[in-house]
Amino acid sequence: MDGGTCSVAQSCNVTPRTKHSGLVRGREIEKVLHSYKSKDWVMFFVTWKRSYLVGAVSSEEIKHVYPKLIIDYIKSLKLND
């Protein structure tokens, strides 16, 4: 490995998460930064209140809890076109 980076062919020694994170743990979303769509699902990359971490939350998890944040994010995309 070179300076902490690794490729798919190399072992990165990544430990899978066994604990829930984000909304399941009761964290509050501050802002939606980005979204990613793949086939039938959408993931939103969000910042959490009182944290510097960025998390990924599925549209199914976020749409009923934070509908205004999703609407504001989509409006911001349309303004940037």
Automatic annotation (TrEMBL):
Listed Pfam families: Chromo_shadow
Subcellular location: Nucleus
GO cellular-component term (any): nucleus
CDD domains assigned to the protein according to its UniProt record, in alphabetical order: CSD
Transmembrane segments: none
Protein's UniProt keywords contain Magnesium: no
Domain Chromo shadow span(s) in chain numbering: 30-73
Keywords (A to Z) from UniProt: Nucleus
Matching InterPro entries: Chromo-like_dom_sf, Chromo_shadow_dom
Identification of the protein by name: Heterochromatin protein 1D3 chromoshadow domain
Designated gene of the protein: Dere\HP1D3csd
